[in-house]
Here is the input.
Amino acid sequence: MRSESFSWNSRIWLSSIESHCCRETRSLYIRQLLFRLTGLVSLICELCGKETPRTRTVAIEGSVLSVCADCAKFGSEVAGPIGVRRPGTAGNPVVAQRLERRQQRMSERDVYTTPATEELAEDFGVRIRQAREARGWKQADLGTKVNERESVIAKLETQAMVPTDAMIPKLEKTLGIKLRERVEPVAVKKHTGRTPMTLGDLIRMDEE
Here is the structure.
């Protein structure tokens, strides 16, 4: 009886987010639900982008984010359950772009004819900050060297903004780092049925 109730409630929940949430928010919420109920899917740190078994809810630069243990030290912890939408999380444009890129990498494509591409690393802010600190520079020092304001450097390091194509090579050359990484195409089967996608469908896709 409990199993039937769980299945029915899960279908209602999935149907609800498919109807009312945007794609990147829906993808994040589904992964969070799957991890909490099955333990088969990890969560995504909204600051550095890496997958983690657990997230902490912290306030960073006025935004409330679900982050990994490594990134939690950059903010103050906020009490609250996982999966609750707060200002600055699902609505954060940088997080939305990062999740959108992850979704694009999972789209169906021909892995034999599609060449590998380079895209902005999901932890670009951490790379910039660590390279700057290793050289003993303040944010203002780095800003002067790459001809950008100190506030821009601060936003890049917290990933409150994404560097432009013109800024990336300047930062890479000045700091001696790579902000772009090679991404191999991934082939994933699409869900093409008329019926709503179930938890079982998502689990099978993740396993494949």
Notes: The CA atoms of residues 15 and 196 lie 7 Å apart. Residues 2-91+192-207 form one domain. Residues 1-8, 81-91, 107-114 have pLDDT under 50 and may be disordered. The radius of gyration is 19 Å.
